[in-house]
Amino acid sequence: MPQIFHPSANTLARVSLALLFGGPVGLLSAGYLLMKSPYQTQQRVIKEQPVPFSHEHHVRGLGIDCRYCHSSVEVSANPTVPPTYTCMSCHSQIWSTSPMLEPVRASLRNGQPLKWSKLHNLPDFVYFNHAIHVNKGVGCESCHGRVDLMPLMWKEKPHTMEWCLECHRHPEEQLRPKDAITAMGWEPNSSTGGQAALGKELIRQNHIQVEQLTNCSICHR
Predict the structure, then answer these.
(1) What are the residue boundaries of the structural domains of the chain, listed by start?
(2) Where do transmembrane segments lie in this chain (predicted)?
(3) Which among 153, 87, 141 has a CA at the least distance from the CA of 114?
(4) pLDDT by residue (tens digit) across 164-173?
């Protein structure tokens, strides 16, 4: 009896079966990787701002504490960007005629705040309170990265639900003394047991109820 199918049909059948069963898995895997990629989370994307503000210059170069500009982080859910008069408290004397800072001077003259492009823009269904995190011992660096090394600001961490939950499940890994909240590059003292021992002690001191941190209502209200 003559052969009906060419020998290559065996290969075609195997490839077809592989695509039939492996295709959906591959698509799901690709979608998951894309969802976690910097392209989706917008990490290290520098957005255009009305003024090219350098955290590296102001924090590392001049030693300005985060709370000088973000003055409400310890008392408010919203850290707020600094009002124009905060900028002009220095720049009315320093670089007072710089063309680069004309938008700041115009903002003060016109009484119109500068329109900064948000980098950390959480969905409306997510509740995040800066004051609680700061007062419980979470440093600025934990969420925003080493801003003192950023000539222009970018989003360092993914700020996904998975990323937040990892910290809520193991808060001891991120806690630090309150006097080190704004310190960039801070490291725990290894002679006292390192981060593990310090974190457990701070959980006790700051009355952090770890068992409640993964409750949905903590972030979704």
Answers:
(1) 8-36, 55-81+116-218
(2) 12-34
(3) 87
(4) 999 999 999 9
